[in-house]
Amino acid sequence: MNVALLAHEGFPDRAKTAVGVLRYAEYEVCAVLDREHAGERVRDHLPDVQDAPIVAGIEDVPERVDALVIGIAPIGGDFDERWRPDVRGAIERGCDVLAGLHYFLAEDDEFAALADEHGVELRDLRRPPDDLTVAEGRAREVDADVVLTVGTDCSTGKMTTSAELVAAARERGIDAALVPTGQTGVLIEDWGIVVDRTASDFTAGAVERMVRERGADHDLLVVEGQGSITHPAYSAVTCGILHGAMPDALVLCHEAGREAIHGYEPFAIPPVPEVVSLYEDLAAPVAETTVAAGALNTADLDEGEANRAIIEYATAIDAPATDPVRFDAAELLDALV
Q1: Claim to verify: residue 318 and residue 248 sit in the same structural domain
Q2: Can you tell me whether residue 70 is helix, strand or coil?
């Protein structure tokens, strides 16, 4: 499927959904929409993903496009009205629109009417199933090993680390699967539940359902984590995933040099050893687990600095660590299976 990615004023640093699609999805990306970088190319910013032109708007995409993907998930998941002309234009071109927002496009009167007129689908990835229930505490019953990525903050590489671990496991001949819990993972895998939209009572149940559905079919499940247990806004979803997945092991994700919660800078990230203890202690009453490995985002460091930062991080968490994008996930996988 040919897609265009909407990432206005956010590409690449604040458009993690767009970057995830470029790096891991099987879609053919025809263009990235970003007024700020129009005229440039993806490779000017991200040399290690599929390339595409960056254009100012949907009208500048010359190729046939099957779908427009909203590649930004802003704090609160709201719809930016500056995106409306591009979404309208995409629908009028006969494109489906895929969005991972809390604002449902299918409930927007203008978009719904246009979609009906042009025979296209508005796919709201965050819309949860209607039949969710509370968890039963049964995720540990699955035959597969279950690994959960957790973080010191949002946007520290949990989805990326999850995807890299699954790819590394498959290369090694391990039957592994990603359990997607966020809009980017659902886009990449074409299944899953975006758990931050579920009723709080049902979050753990949603994760448990996915683990139990796939646990008999694979030897290793890597559950995509969300938020952080230390986040003043998103800790609830993190706890729900942790208790619902009942993981055998955790991978702690962190960005080198980040000292405060992004967007909530008055809140400092606790020292990494404290974060390790918080996750392990919180999990213990439901299902004991350990931080068995660490993933460190070193994108802003040169290679020498990155190596030093990884050694310091591994020491701090008392477990193997690496940057799974800059290097690879083999060392993490060794610690987990």
Answers
A1: yes
A2: strand
Per the listing, tokens 């796919």 go with 123
Average pLDDT over all residues of the chain: 96
Question: Are 152 and 95 found together in one domain?
Answer: no
Q: What's the whole-number mean pLDDT along residues 179-200?
A: 95
Q: How far apart are the first and last CA of the chain?
A: 35
User: Is the model more confident about 248 or about 63?
Assistant: 248
CATH of the domain at 110: 3.40.50.720
Beta-carbon contacts of 93 under 8 Å, excluding residues fewer than 6 positions away, are 58, 65
pLDDT digits (tens, 9 = 90+) for 21-36: 999 999 999 999 999 9
Has residue 129 been placed in a domain? no
* Whole-number Å distance between alpha carbons of 291 and 308: 21
For 38-53, write each residue's pLDDT tens digit.
999 999 999 989 999 9
Instruction: Measure the CA–CA gap between 114 and 94, rounded to whole angstroms.
Output: 10
* Burial class for 152, CB neighbours closer than 10 Å (0-12, 13-18, 19+): buried
**Which CB contacts under 8 angstroms, 24+ apart, belong to 307-311?**
309/256, 309/257
CA distances from 141 to 31, 62, 144, 205 (A): 44, 51, 9, 14
Q: Is residue 214 part of a domain?
A: yes
Instruction: Give me the domain span that covers residue 145.
Output: 139-336
Q: Give dist(CA 33, CA 216) in Å, integer.
A: 41
Q: Are 2 and 94 in contact (CB under 8 A)?
A: no
> Counting beta carbons within 10 angstroms of the beta carbon of residue 127, is it exposed (0 to 12), middle (13 to 18) or buried (19 or more)?
middle
DSSP β-ladder status, 264-268 and 260-261:
antiparallel
Domain assignment present for 132: no
> Pick from 185, 72, 199, 196: which is nearest to 135 by CA?
199
What's the pLDDT tens digit per position in 82-126?
999 999 999 999 999 999 999 999 999 999 999 999 999 999 999
